[in-house]
Amino acid sequence: MSGVPKTAIELAKRFEGFHRAPKADPGRARPYICPAGYWTIGYGHLCDSKHSPITVAEAEAFLARDLQTALAATLRYCPVLAAEPEGRLSAILDFTFNLGTGRLQTSTLRRRVNQRDWVAAATELRRWVYGGGKVLPGLVARREAECAFLLSG
Prior knowledge:
- There is one protein chain.
- This protein has helices at 6-16, 56-77, 86-99, 101-105, 108-114, 118-125, 137-152; strands at residues 28-29, 32-33, 39-41, 45-46, 54-55, 130-131, 134-135.
- By secondary structure, it is mainly alpha-helical.
- Helix 6 packs antiparallel against helix 7.
């Protein structure tokens, strides 16, 4: 995964998880509906409901591509991150991977990052904890982990 920080890969894997199939085929993941209501497979890869089951290796390949795409978008909209410590890049990259390029592009978070106002950026990150109109504990935990990387530099 050229260019994708190891910490970003670890964040994505930790918070997405690998959703295994039932006991009959525990080495594979099947599509599932994530808490925000999207069909997903492996480590948070968007798919359709009829996607065939995948192995951990296939899930990691999807994750590598998805993170590469998110990295390009993150650096396009937050170019200051190229000169910042890896943790800061990982935090915003994980946000982009989790919520999508469009959310980063139009967010106040983007402005705060490009101003290098890390405390204000962390405050903005903590606002993105809703899925389906409800606060999701998993997103609260994820945003706190991202904030820890963002603020530690």
